Amino acid sequence: MGMASRRGPLQAGEFVQITDPKGRLHTVMLVPGGYFQTSRGSLRHDDIIGQPEAVTMYDGEREFQVVRPLLTDYVMSMPRGAAIVYPKDAAQIVAFGDIFPGARVLEAGVGSGALSMSLLQAVGSTGSLHSIERREDFAKIAQGNVDLWFGGRHPAWQVSVGDFADVAMSLPAESTDRVVLDMLAPWECIEAVEHVLAPGGVLTVYVATVTQLSRMREDLGAFGRFTRPQAWESAIRDWHLDGLAVRPEHRMVAHTGFLMTTRKVERASVPQRRAGRPAKAAEGLAGQWDQETAWEENGELNPVVSPKKVRRSIRDVAGKTRDWLAHDEDGENV
Q1: How many CB atoms lie within 10 A of CB 133?
Q2: Angle between helices 114-123 and 87-96 (to 10 degrees)
Q3: Staple partner for 79: which of 178, 270, 315, 316, CB 3.0–4.6 Å?
Q4: 189: which DSSP letter?
Q5: How far apart are CA 215 and CA 291, in angstroms?
Q6: Segment 290-322, tens digit of pLDDT
């Protein structure tokens, strides 16, 4: 599925990435009789269909590069409901969260499906990914985006709509190898994570602010079933390469979120104690964020997505899946 099924000549019904003469990228689904038009020129889809990948097409003297999009390209251009996990963070979650082929992974906060695609490519057909999303409309957008990328429903993927803690507590104890939480208040799910995660299993948490990071660290320590967490953020800066003009780009995607990983300790054991006491000023204030409430209502932490935008994304995804994938009325593969 996915890129493994997209070899050979370009086919109708698949996405291509067209780079115009100014270097702008356009993600287009090839349709018989279709037409690609920009202010810099145009191409007929019928002229692209059947061509080998990475072909240069012409409109007069203007050149267009046509390739199949990478997952990172697709994620950045697909319809969205919730904000996406950027590819730079998804890559770190897969690497530092140790998502391996055959892993049993539980994910909370599906959003628009960006992270789910990276996790599915990592676990492969021999593993499993159980994604839990509280909002049904976001789940529909994610399912459509993921189905379009893989060319159908991935056999390792299961989506549940509901609260993470409720779903996780209903699963067999210690039945999951890895857990990934992308939510506003992950500390509310620590008990459920401890229930479902196998000893030695990795918990990866993705949060946006320092307050969330600190609260999660304090609550993990108080719970007493996990190793000392590691936390970091990543920033990628592109470089401009043009002859002797080699310099950093003027714009970059800097802070998108914090990542934290920790591992579950065997229940018959205890976490390793710190060798020395921290400085008094660094001890924390017995959970200084415990009194903070209304995380869901905080507009900075949880930006409101307009119903109109969500409906538009659902229509966009549903239209594409209806045209190019065989689905029944419930969105499942026929």
Answers
A1: 26
A2: 40
A3: 316
A4: G
A5: 10
A6: 666 666 666 556 666 777 777 777 777 777 777
